[in-house]
TrEMBL record:
Superkingdom of the source species: Bacteria
Annotated positions binding ATP: 34, 38, 80, 85, 93, 99-101, 122-127, 174, 345
Localization (cell): Cytoplasm
Coiled-coil annotated residue ranges, if any: none
Name under which the protein is recorded: Chaperone protein HtpG
Keyword annotations from UniProtKB, A to Z: ATP-binding, Chaperone, Cytoplasm, Nucleotide-binding, Stress response
Signal peptide feature range: none
PANTHER family linked to this entry: HEAT SHOCK PROTEIN 90 FAMILY MEMBER
PROSITE patterns: HSP90
Amino acid sequence: AGQMEKHGFQTEVKQLLHLMIHSLYSNKEIFLRELVSNASDAADKLRFKALSDNSLYGDDSDLHVRVSVDKDSRTITISDNGVGMTRDDVMNNLGTIAKSGTAEFFGQLSGDEAKDSKLIGQFGVGFYSAFIVADEVTVRTRSALDKDARGVEWRSQGEGDFEIADIDKARRGTDIILHLKDDADEFLDENRLRGIINKYSEHLSIPVQMWKEPVPESEDDEGNKVEGQPGEWETVNSGQALWTREKSDITDDEYKEFYKTVAHDFDEPLLWSHNKVEGTTEYTNLLYIPKRAPWDLWNREQQHGVKLYVKRVFIMDDAEQLMPTYLRFVRGLVDSNDLPLNVSREILQDNKITRAMRNGSTKKVLQMLKKLAKDDKEQYQQFWDTFGNVLKEGPAEDHTNRERIAELLRFASTHNDGAVQSVSLDDYIERMKEGQDKIFYIVADSYEAARNNPALEIFNKKGIEVLLLSERIDEWLMSHLTEFKEKQLQSVTRGDLDLGELDDEEDKAEQEKAEEAFKENLERFEKALGDKVKKVRVTNRLTNSPACIITDDNDMSTQMAKLMEAAGQ
Ligand code: ADP
Ligand code: MG
């Protein structure tokens, strides 16, 4: 072996290790899911590379993951003949955290273990989860891509540092050797390991194997010879990708377990939709809505959660072309029958097949949400409270589905007490007054500010419902949502508010009289306020307040102006 070097972990790795070991002690078994899934990813990556260079396989094209136990030395080894790692890869992958948004994640940690352990589940624990059960981890690896590369050994006790050295390794790929802690005995039991593999890795298309001991030749009760069996590597998972199976043969539990692996979530999904699409474009998708928001939901640059497969071969994570940004909370995969296996991100970007799959998948998600809203109000409310503000980006981004998205929106309203957003536009329309042809709303800084805005006085007096909007995104939303089911959406703080038939003759006469009476005062106000206002006018809209500020129909609303100002415009 070559010179051994010692390196310190990046600070975040130390924090992560500490947090993980303390918060996941009741969920130890997930280390195997993570390590087997990494091994399977490595095999997938090699299979993908080998599509364009078959020689990468050498004389070993039978990709697999093997899990073995050595009770005497108290070790578990997870071994793959996948893509492997170069020395640089090892340094980058197993000493730092390369995930995007890592800083944000650490910024969110509170020091409260219960809270933080939830976060970590969403962050995804990955390779470092080995240290939940091991007091020493050794990684021996050799890259399949760099033919001149030597092997590399990485070793750590999961405290502050790791050691790295060049080694000779005959087989390409990676062996991960875990030396178990005293309290992790249960994982020396092969049946326990088989159980965990069945639970989490059943669907992996790479065979996960365990060694079956040979059975010696023997004799039965009557003295007949019974043939022995040689030892062999036995495949533990069925190896059939879950989404390729018939829907009717898949149990809810299988869907849920699969979700946990694709989404790196500890929780069950809220709902899912599994579709085989045939016709001009052929593909299968399996799309999940999580229960909880991922920790980086608000980062619009965050990786998307939909993986791309082509004919069951894994192609890439986070295929952003497959799902619009306003549905970035969706997790799952799309498996295309039509794309070429050597598809790149560039090809995906402007591609008829991608577009068809994206449109189809988007509709499926919107349909599944619509159905949830109809079937289970409570769960839909949970969804809305978690992801509603992301969905509100929809009308601006996706014109084709504007109406479908609008149906899914929920608002606070003068019809309800409290700030909970539970009123749909359809609910509103159903309650509209006779002669009312518009949907009225107000946008303000907070629910309280909206609720108490003087502009609502006339509406309260006439018993007309007004939607109360107070999220940052709402102004943006409403500037792209001007109509729903042929009804105009009208802000109550804008312009010369026309209540149409809702204004009776008496109101109009009174208004005219007042305008006459106050004419001189108005001119004096305008003169005194100068450039600060465009116009001062008399209104019959107010019943309790002396005055209020409104904007012209074509001008920026006061909310939008504040937003622009905040953005430094
Ligand atoms: P993730 O799998 O989400 O990328 P992990 O912490 O599980 O994060 O793994 C970190 C990285 O280490 C992987 O992205 C991969 O590049 C590398 N890696 C881990 N295990 C293996 C393996 N068995 N073979 C090759 N590379 C691996
Ligand atoms: Mg991983």
